[in-house]
Amino acid sequence: MENQYTYYTPEQDHRDKEPDKKKKRKVPGAVKMICFGLVFGLTAGAAFQASSYVTGKIFGTNKENKTAKQTETVKGAVLATGSGDTVTSDVSKIAQNAMPSVVSITNISIQQVQSFFGGVREQEIPSAGSGIIISQNETELLILTNNHVVEGSDTLTVSFIDEESVEAAIKGTDASRDIAVVAVKLEDIKESTMEAIAVATLGDSTKLQVGEPAIAIGNALGYGQSVTTGIVSATKRMLEGFDSELIQTDAAINPGNSGGALLNARGEVIGINTIKVASSGMNNVGVEGMGYAIPISDASDIIKDLMNRKTRTKVADDEKGYLGIQGVDVTSDSAEMYNMPTGVYISSVIKGGGASRAGLSKGSVITALEGTAIDGMTTLQEQLQYYRAGETVKVTVQIPQKDGEYKEEIVEVTLGTSS
Length: 419
Description:
By secondary structure, the protein is mainly beta. It has helices spanning 92-98, 147-150, 191-196, 300-307, 332-338, 354-358, 377-384, and strands spanning 4-5, 22-23, 32-35, 39-40, 69-70, 81-83, 86-88, 102-114, 120-136, 140-145, 155-159, 165-174, 179-185, 198-199, 213-218, 226-237, 246-249, 261-263, 269-278, 291-295, 325-330, 343-349, 365-369, 372-373, 392-400, 406-414. It folds into two domains: 1-312, Beta Barrel (Thrombin, subunit H), CATH 2.40.10; 317-414, Pdz3 Domain (Roll), CATH 2.30.42. It has seven helices and 26 strands. A six-stranded antiparallel beta barrel has the order 15-16-17-20-19-18. The chain has a six-stranded antiparallel beta barrel with strand order 8-9-10-13-12-11. Strands 21, 22, 23, 24, 25 and 26 form a six-stranded antiparallel sheet that branches.
């Protein structure tokens, strides 16, 4: 039987709808994959915690008078002890120490839905995910999460451990790695909240051993923080839709956990919870205990880059800039079949538009905009929402060569209007 994956997207409610099926690879069994950053129709009810100090030695940013503490490395926590038939498990020290660094993220998106009478109307669709406070600079608290937790957002709200909520803005995203960093203005955070939250301590995921304990913390089902335990089931797993290896764990990762923390026995963040295998595997055998997290060490360079970007807000519809192209998605399957890079294939260039003036031509593939990876038209259009007509942006394109290969170039394009 052919292996299958199914991903839940912001347009899907995993409780009510039958998911679409996608091909999978490198994991046995016909399984269904769930992107757990988004729990639709739920508002993140409980609050999570955040922090402001520079995380470990990986991310160097400045501190300010309004500074949150940092989580400590836990010593002496008991994960599994006992004799005979009696086994006890105590992760309370780890949870107590780490929970102030985990937040809930509520994503409100505006989507067109079919009305009862056959028309189309716009509706606010809330979804809930999790995030990890990893640093603060002079003016912002920085929170790490999954790209699919924040994509398509009209507004983002971050809720802390003390149940205080503030509006957040996207600082940077990488769709191909499913990583995003969001920022909250320090001036919007109460002093009492700053005292309650903490910056997470990052561990070294390259030193993980199969079988060692793993603890997952996140906004499960949008109800608030919860803690689950298990082990590291495997490392270096490869799944469709991810450009990096993943950590596999049997610690329960449920809808809403995406973007939350996967911790080791020292309370250090070793991974970013992202997806879980559900449904059935080969021969219709039930699949349980297969959750996945992005290794924190593998993502450190990308995270640092996203943290250092300028925080942008969406511009008004009548001020939006346009590249002046028509494009087609180049999916991973298409890229492999036709030996093309993943991104947006330029099917035509609009005469007089920004792309035309910059020398872009039909046949090239757009792979990044201002350093943000582009994996399709949806991502490209979402990124362009932050730039006004008249602004100049750097577009990374792969240009086809006579030998069938592609050559990468970065082209500066001055954005035009929709007309």
